[in-house]
Amino acid sequence: MKVLVTGASGRFGPCLVAELERAGHDLVLMCRSRPEGADRWPWVQGDITSFDDCLRATDGGVQAIQHVAANAWASDHPESRARYEQRGVPFDDTMRTNIMGPYYLLQASLKRDIGLLVMTGSNCALGHGGRISGSEFPVKYLPIDEEHPSDVEDSYSYSKLVGEELLASYSRAYGMRTYVLRSAGICNADRRRDMARKAGPAGGWDPWMWAWIACEDLASAHRLLMEKAASLPVHGVYFCNNDDTTAVEPSLELVKRFKPEYLPLCKDLGGHATFLSNRRLHGIGWQPRMSWRDARSDEGGTKR
């Protein structure tokens, strides 16, 4: 299959490119700076916030899009705005990149008759992190699944939730197959080793719920959704995080210690079970292979 990969020069892009290469797919790479794979595959230097760039990138027989380009934080968030200003990033960058970017790609797909798009989303579509008001995220049950209500406050979380709805609307209206992976903290091998070195007792409840995903496992989920699309519903949203947490302590112990009021809401949280259920993704044959705990055992700790 001929596949366009956006964001190919980003932190996750090279990992996805490697996964698709191993599976035998032909690639077109789109990003603003030269990616590692530019010596092997056509590279379109462009920005997803430009419709003309999206049209150029989707030309030439592209059959599917793997969309991973995004702004990974709220450029207008009160806690980060000063850092963005120092870098010359406009306040509305997150909204333009994470909403208009997918929109332009979807519109280009219609013009090029491309019927399949898989996008890296975020578990932040829940709204449990990056909260501005200081209020707690209203947990209804644990582990949280894709049906749990969202309660977003910041522009990044909002943009990721809107992105999901945008893709769903194109599936309803045009029959495009669109899929979103709600990824957690994406970790390469170096970051996993760093996690293992720094592992220690939790000091409090983590609003991000200790969720994480190895970049290799996220890449395999991207490939699997693309390759199995014909047998799936035309649209789907999937939590994509590891089976376990980043915490040393078992999950129920964390709840008992920091959020005992959540205990009546808990079900199937044995061991280090994730607080964000990935059961839906498991249901299509995906299985995470990497664990930071393996790196921890190499450091003299114990495996999960």
CATH topology: Rossmann fold
Order of helices and strands: EHEEHEHHEHEEHEHEHHH
Number of strands: 9
| Mean pLDDT over all positions | 95
Unreliable stretches (pLDDT < 50, length at least 5) are: 299-304
Proportion in β-strands: 5-15%
Q: How many separate structural domains?
A: 1
| The level-1 CATH class | Alpha Beta
CATH superfamily, called what? NAD(P)-binding Rossmann-like Domain
Counting H and I runs of at least 4 residues, what is the number of helices? 10
Give a structural overview.
With 304 residues, the chain is of the alpha/beta class. It has a single domain, classed as NAD(P)-binding Rossmann-like Domain (Rossmann fold), CATH 3.40.50.720. 35% of the residues lie in helices and 14% in strands. It contains ten helices and nine strands. The strands form two sheets. A seven-stranded parallel beta sheet has the order 3-2-1-4-5-6-9, sandwiched between helices. A two-stranded parallel ribbon has the order 7-8. Strand 5, helix 5 and strand 6 form a beta-alpha-beta unit. Helix 1 crosses helix 7, helix 4 packs parallel to helix 5 and helix 6 crosses helix 10. The longest helix is centred in the middle third of the chain and has 20 residues.
Could you give a quick summary of the protein structure above?
By secondary structure, the protein is α/β, with parallel strands linked by helices.
Give keywords.
single chain, about 300 residues, alpha/beta, Rossmann fold, seven-stranded parallel beta sheet, two-stranded parallel ribbon, 9 strands, about 15% strand
